[in-house]
Amino acid sequence: MKKISVSSLNPQHFKLSVDEAGIATVTLNRPERKNPLTFDSYMELTDFFRSLKYVDGIKVVVVTGAGGNFCSGGDVHEIIGPLVKMDMPGVYDFTQMTGDLVKAIRNCPQPVISAIEGICAGAGAIIAMSSDLRVGTAASKVAFLFVRVGLAGCDMGACAILPRIIGQGRASELLYTGRVMTGEEAERWGFYNRLAVAGESLDTALAVARDLRAGPTFAHGLTKKMLQQEWNMTIDQAIEAEAQAQAIAMKTEDFRRAYEAFAAKRQPVFEGN
Prior knowledge:
The chain has 273 residues and is of the alpha/beta class. It has helices spanning 39-51, 76-85, 88-107, 123-130, 158-166, 168-177, 183-188, 201-213, 217-229, 235-250, 253-263, and strands at 15-18, 23-28, 60-65, 112-115, 119-121, 133-137, 141-143, 180-182, 194-196.
């Protein structure tokens, strides 16, 4: 299958940079409004994450926000206002479209890390939730605030994914009340994998990304796929699926490289194949 080159990725509604190691940084870039999403940015982000299956040059993705905030959610004027005027089929098309972003993040083979500063609310909290790993700060504020605007907490997979990260009771509280989860709570409850110094979440997330990039990236893709697919499996089915996945991993060159490095008493250098 034809691969997509990194140079052909030219998003208009967020910033994208890719370093020489293949670590992509996605920056939500409307700092004057705390980086809200629009119809266009939703769709472009979804297209980007869907395309990652076919991009050779990206091995890990870091998502961040410009100007000291992650994302304030859907833009009040550009999304919320128009939604109030739509009929039911129209709003259903919208809610399916927003859910597609979560599916795209969860189904791309690359690990996705969110670097969270400041406000992380609504759809921004969902993007963070959908990521594989999250780095935040004590000063950050995460809120699944749908109920505060008259909506249900069951948005974009929150009722399925959030309890798996922080537990049913804690997720229920956040989704029923829409209250802010502080940075300390987020770290203590397991929502944040690491707590960084304020202003340094991106640097910390990039350090994590470099560690992942140094590992067997093809095998990381298998791990991510199994983490996703095994939600719907019995234990016996999961064991069988992992047997198949691990057999595939054992036929990679990285597995051979690791063995040869061990025998030679040196660190392996993985190449992702």
